[in-house]
Amino acid sequence: MASHVVRSAATTIRQRLVALKPPYGNDARQALQAELPIGTEVGLRPKATDRYGRTVAEVLRGTTNINQALVAAGAAFVYWQYIEGCDRETYSRLENEARLKSLGIWACAWRHSTALGLQKG
């Protein structure tokens, strides 16, 4: 889930979801595939380029912000180091709601973000 390829008629972009520190494994992959099946048309809201040359962006499917949807479902952590240019309040609220409801990654015993080094920056 760390890197994706976005293709258009004119170009191919290696892209990373901004503000997300995804968990790895089948659950994370399935959550992303449920939101964005292969071939889904998306819009990108670029924020930066990372050290690997990937475009760091929020991904939109219509009016749905996929980054925020993954956080709200407990399928990804907010990566506070890369929140620049994004709606911090919304990401914080969505992550807190998912954590309080024990959704996705927050259903595990190790769900406390401070233990993972993911505290807000």
Describe the protein.
The chain is an alpha+beta fold. It is 28% helix and 25% strand. The chain has helices spanning 26-35, 66-72, 88-100, 113-116, and strands at 4-7, 12-17, 20-21, 43-49, 55-61, 64-65, 77-78. Strands 1, 2, 4, 5 and 6 form a five-stranded mixed beta sheet that branches. Strand 4 (43-49) and strand 5 (55-61) form a beta hairpin. Helix 2 packs parallel to helix 3. The radius of gyration is 14 Å and the shape is globular. The mean pLDDT is 76.
Q: Helix/strand-derived class?
A: alpha+beta
Number of strands: 7
Radius of gyration: 14 Å
Shape: globular
Low-confidence stretches: none
Strand content: 15-25%
Mean pLDDT across residues: 76
Q: Kindly state the percentage of residues in helix.
A: 25-40%
- Put simply, the count of helices is 4
Q: N-to-C SSE series? A: EEEHEEEHEHH
For the report, how would you describe the main beta sheet?
5 strands, mixed
Distance between the termini: 23 Å
